[in-house]
């Protein structure tokens, strides 16, 4: 795709995912060279400023990561293993999940080491607030993988620590952004099938009850995907300040699952003119994880203080935007 960018080369691994698409849109407006690596085409602005190269690749293939990151000034690593109905519900002993969630990070570091770039490239990684949900905030940075409840969190933390080690050794300038629960704002039609908020919004539009587990008491920090993308560009703009450690990203607002699902039902009701669908408790299914009952909410404002980033889209506005998008698609399909 043509563009005018002639600056640094930024490679996005996992560019066609929910977060990757939003970050790619954000970076497309910058005067850079942008290499987007994913399994599907990426929805981009019609007249990007960046000079954009899209690549289809299975990064688990031998040599695929090295080829993807060759010559990069910045690597944004967003690849995650997709298993069943959720991207983060990973079983212990799932070797493919470990290969994707952890092994690919080692492949990136090994490729950079072998390529010996003249300037240390930046390496930004998408972590999760769930990595520190059980750990006091003061001790979160020293958490060890074996202390975490799920394989997904153990993979993410081990990858995060590998990036920190590579930064300490002078190979990269690395940083991890530990993200909360992300949700689509309905910008890209593909996003309407990704994440719990989109799933429950679609169920409500279809008139089906919204089912929750454990009474819906667990609290979540919900961040619109565009605000999450801006957190990554904020990290790039303040790289010297953020490199070498992990940062918690979020709104700091606590919303229980029950409150979220009730808000979705009411928001969809306003869009459709029908009564809100019921929100009911149900027995956890086979995908349930121990962390489903824990709270994942931002505890530290440090990233905001260092970078100046702050979320712009309040939850009620975000839910209204995605409900409108889902309702419009539903009307178009059923007309």
From TrEMBL:
Gene3D superfamilies: NAD(P)-binding Rossmann-like Domain. InterPro entries: Epimerase_deHydtase (IPR001509), Lipid_A_modif_metabolic_enz (IPR050177), NAD(P)-bd_dom_sf (IPR036291). Residues 10-250 form the NAD-dependent epimerase/dehydratase domain. It holds the Pfam family Epimerase. It comes from the Bacteria. This is NAD-dependent epimerase/dehydratase.
């Amino acid at each position: 795709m043509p563009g005018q960018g002639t600056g640094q080369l930024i490679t996005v691994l996992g560019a066609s995912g929910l977060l990757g698409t939003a970050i790619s849109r954000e970076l497309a407006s910058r005067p850079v060279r942008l290499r987007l690596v994913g399994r599907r085409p990426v929805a981009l602005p019609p007249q990007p400023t960046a000079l954009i190269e899209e690549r289809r690749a299975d990064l688990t293939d031998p040599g695929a990561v090295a080829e993807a990151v060759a010559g990069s000034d910045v690597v944004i690593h967003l690849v995650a293993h997709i298993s069943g109905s959720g991207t983060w519900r990973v079983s212990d002993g799932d070797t493919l999940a470990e290969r994707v969630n952890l092994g690919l990070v080692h492949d990136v570091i090994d490729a950079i080491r072998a390529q010996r770039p003249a300037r240390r490239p930046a390496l930004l990684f998408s972590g999760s607030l769930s990595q520190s949900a059980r750990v006091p905030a003061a001790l979160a940075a020293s958490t060890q993988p074996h202390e975490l409840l799920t394989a997904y969190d153990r993979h993410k933390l081990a990858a995060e620590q590998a990036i920190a080690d590579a930064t300490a050794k002078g190979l990269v300038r690395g940083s991890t952004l530990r993200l909360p629960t992300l949700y689509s704002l309905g910008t890209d039609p593909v996003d309407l099938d990704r994440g719990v908020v989109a799933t429950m919004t679609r169920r409500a539009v279809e008139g089906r009850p919204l089912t929750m587990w454990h009474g819906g008491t667990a609290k979540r920090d919900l961040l619109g995907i565009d605000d999450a993308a801006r957190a990554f560009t904020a990290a790039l703009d303040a790289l010297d300040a953020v490199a070498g450690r992990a940062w918690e990203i979020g709104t700091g607002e606590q919303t229980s699952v029950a409150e979220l699902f009730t808000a979705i039902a009411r928001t969809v009701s306003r869009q459709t003119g029908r009564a809100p669908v019921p929100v009911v408790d149900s027995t956890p299914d086979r995908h349930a994880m121990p962390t489903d009952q824990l709270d994942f909410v931002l505890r530290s404002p440090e990233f905001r203080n260092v970078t100046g980033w702050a979320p712009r889209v309040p939850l009620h506005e975000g839910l209204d935007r995605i409900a409108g998008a889902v309702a419009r698609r539903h009307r178009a399909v059923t007309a």
